[in-house]
Amino acid sequence: MLNQLLQVEIQNFINQNIETNITELAFKKNPFPELDYSVLLNQIAAKQKAKLKLPTWFGAQNIIFPEKISIEQTSSEKTAQYKASLIKGESLIDLSGGFGIDDYYFAKHFKEVAHCEINNNLSEIVQHNFNILSVSNIKCFSGESTEILKTLNRKFDWIYVDPSRRHDKKGKVFLLNDCEPNVPQLLSFYFKYSENILIKTAPILDIQSGLNELQFVKKIHIIALENEVKELLWEIEANYSGEVYINSINIEKESITEDSAVFKKDYKSSFSTVQKYLYEPNAALMKSGEFSYVSEKYNIAKLHQHSHLYTSNELIAFPGRSFEIMECIPFQKNDLKKHIINQKMNISTRNFPLKVDEIKKKFKIKDGGTIFAFFTTDIQNNKIVLLCKKTTP
Predict the structure, then answer these.
(1) Where does the record place the THUMP-like domain (predicted)?
(2) DSSP 164
C-alpha cells in the first residue's frame, strides 16, 4: 500500500485535491482503479486536517497519513513542541507512539527515541515519514509496549505514555484504570525501566481523581492552545514525596503564558465589590482550580467564593481576558430592560442560576458586538450583570 500511495501520479492527485470537498470527490470515478478509492480519499481528508495542526507534515513531500481520526486525536505541533521542552536526556521510549508527532519533537531533546506502536501498518507509516523528515534518532517498534520493554530490557531516562481514552464499547473514560495501557497498575513495572514517567491524559480527567490513582506525581501540566485545554501531562518520579506543582500553560499564536501553583497550598483570596476592571482566568487556570492562587499572586479580589471572576481598580497584565466594567446592573427586570433586552452582546455566566441559552432567549439577545455581559453573583450574594468592554493589550 505504501508503494502505491507514493506513486507520483497518486501524490499529485492528492495535492491537487487538498481544497476539494471530500463528499463531492467521493461521488466521482476513482482515477486509480488499482487502489481502493476509500484509501485515497482518506489521504486527502487526513492531509486536509493536518494543514493547520501539523504544518511540517502537511508541507513535506511524500508524507503518508493514517486514518483521519488519528490526525484528530494526535497532539498538534504546538503542544508537542512545548511538551518536549519540559524534559530531556539521553533516551526516551514512547509506549503509545501513534502518528509520532510527540516523538518528532522529543527527538530534538534526546539522543535516541524509541517509538512503540501496536498497529504494524501505522508503525511502518511513521518510520517512512521520519525518513522523509530526515529524523535519524527515532527507532520504530511494532507490538505491545510492555512486551517491547521486556525485549529491549534496558533503562531509559524517560518513559512517555498516552493511554487510550476509550472503552471497547466506546464512551468517555473518566479513570486511568479504565485506559489502555492501565498505567496505575503498570507503574511498578515501568519503574524497572525508568525513574521518570510522563503521562498524557485527556483534559476531561479530574485532577484529584488522577492524583488518587497515581503515585509519586511531581508536576501536573495543563496545556491549553488558544484558550482551549488540550491535554494534561503528569510528571512522575520514582519515590517522589514532595509538593505537587500544577503548571497552567496557555499557548497563543505569538506568546505563551505560564503559571505554577502548589497543589492544595493554603493561598489566600481577597474579596471585593465590583471595581473598575474585571478578569476571567484562561482555560488552563480554570482547569487547575487554583483560584485562591490567582487572587494572591496577582493581588486582585474575587467577586464571590464561587464566581471565579476577579476585579481591581488598577489594570494589570493578566493570564486570561481583561475587561473594563462600564455598568454593574442588579439582575432585576426593570433595571435590565433598557440595558440588555433586544441587544447584541457576548454573554458569559459564572456562578449564576440561568444558562447562557436561557438568558439569550429570555432577553432576546443576539450574539456579537463589542459588549461583553457577565451574569454572576457578587460578594453579598446578589445576582448582577456586568456590562464590559475588552481592554486594549
Answers:
(1) 320-390
(2) B
Residue 278 in grid coordinates: 474585571
First to last CA, the chain: 52
275 φ/ψ angles, rounded to the nearest 5 degrees: -110, -150
pLDDT digits (tens, 9 = 90+) for 152-178: 999 999 999 999 865 554 455 578 998
pLDDT at 242 over 80: yes
The CATH superfamily label for domain 74-262 reads Vaccinia Virus protein VP39 (3.40.50.150)
| Sequence-distant (≥ 6) Cβ neighbours of residue 186 within 8 angstroms | 146
DSSP designation for 266: -
56-103 pLDDT, tens digit each? 999 999 999 998 778 888 999 999 999 999 999 999 999 999 999 999
Specify the CATH architecture of the domain 2-68: Orthogonal Bundle (1.10)
pLDDT above 90 coverage of the chain, percent: 88
| The predicted structure's pLDDT at residue 244 | 98
Residue with cell 506543582: 245
**For residue 150, is pLDDT > 90?**
yes
